[in-house]
C-alpha cells in the first residue's frame, strides 16, 4: 500500500492530532471509539482524512473515494493480525468512513473488530456498537414512512 499522509504532516507536533506511534490519531478511532460516540465532527475528520489520502492502487483508490464494496474487499478476507500496524489501521479507517452511512460496512467493521488483538472488553464493546449501528441503519432504511408524516 502506498498511502500519502501528507495532509497530516503539518500536525506532526500536535499531541491532539498525533497518536503515540507518530501516526495521525484518526487512524486509531476505529479501534478506540464506539459507534455511538461518532458525532458529525468526528465523522467529518475521518472522512476528510480518508478522502485526502492518495494511492496508486486502483482498489484502494476506489475505497478511499467511498466505494463501500472496495473498502469491504480490502479487509474481508484478511486473517486476524498479531499486531495492528499502519496497513491495518489505514484499511480499517477506510472501512470506518464507509460504516458511517452504510450498514454493510458497519457489519463488516463489527466482524473484523472481533478478530483484532485488542483488550477483550474493548473489542467486545466496539464490535457490539457497530453491530447495533448496522441494525439501526437497516431499520431506518426499511421502515416505510407512516401515513401523515413526511420524511
What can you see in these coordinates?
With 151 residues, the protein is mainly alpha-helical. The protein contains six helices and no strands. It has helices at 40-51, 58-64, 68-76, 86-99, 103-113, 120-142. The longest helix has 23 residues, at 120-142. The radius of gyration is 16 Å and the shape is globular.
Please report the total strand number as a whole number.
0
Rg is 16 Å
Instruction: Classify the secondary structure makeup into a structural class.
Output: mainly alpha
Give the overall shape, derived from the CA principal axes.
Answer: globular
- As a percent range, the share of strand residues is under 5%
The count of helical stretches stands at 6
The N- to C-terminal Cα distance equals 42 Å
Helix-strand pattern: HHHHHH
**Regions with pLDDT < 50 over 5+ consecutive residues?**
1-19
Q: Can you give the helix content as a percent range?
A: 40-55%
Give the rounded overall mean pLDDT.
85
Q: What kind of sheet is the major sheet?
A: none
Task: Please give the structural blueprint.
Blueprint: H1 40-51, H2 58-64, H3 68-76, H4 86-99, H5 103-113, H6 120-142
Helix pairs in contact: 1-4, 2-3, 3-4, 3-5, 4-5, 5-6
Amino acid at each position: 500500500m502506498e498511502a500519502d499522509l501528507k495532509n497530516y504532516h503539518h500536525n506532526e507536533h500536535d499531541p491532539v492530532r498525533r497518536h503515540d506511534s507518530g501516526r495521525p490519531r484518526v487512524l486509531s478511532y476505529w479501534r478506540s471509539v464506539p459507534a455511538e460516540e461518532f458525532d458529525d465532527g468526528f465523522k467529518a475528520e475521518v472522512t476528510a482524512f480518508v478522502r485526502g489520502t492518495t494511492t496508486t492502487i486502483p482498489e484502494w483508490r476506489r475505497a478511499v473515494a467511498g466505494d463501500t464494496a472496495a473498502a469491504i474487499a480490502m479487509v474481508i478476507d484478511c486473517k486476524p493480525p498479531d499486531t495492528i500496524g499502519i496497513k491495518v489501521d489505514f484499511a480499517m479507517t477506510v472501512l470506518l468512513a464507509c460504516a458511517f452511512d452504510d450498514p454493510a460496512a458497519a457489519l463488516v467493521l463489527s466482524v473484523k473488530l472481533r478478530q483484532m488483538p485488542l483488550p477483550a472488553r474493548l473489542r467486545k464493546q466496539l464490535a457490539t456498537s457497530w453491530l447495533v449501528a448496522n441494525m439501526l441503519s437497516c431499520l431506518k432504511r426499511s421502515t416505510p414512512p407512516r401515513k401523515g408524516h413526511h420524511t
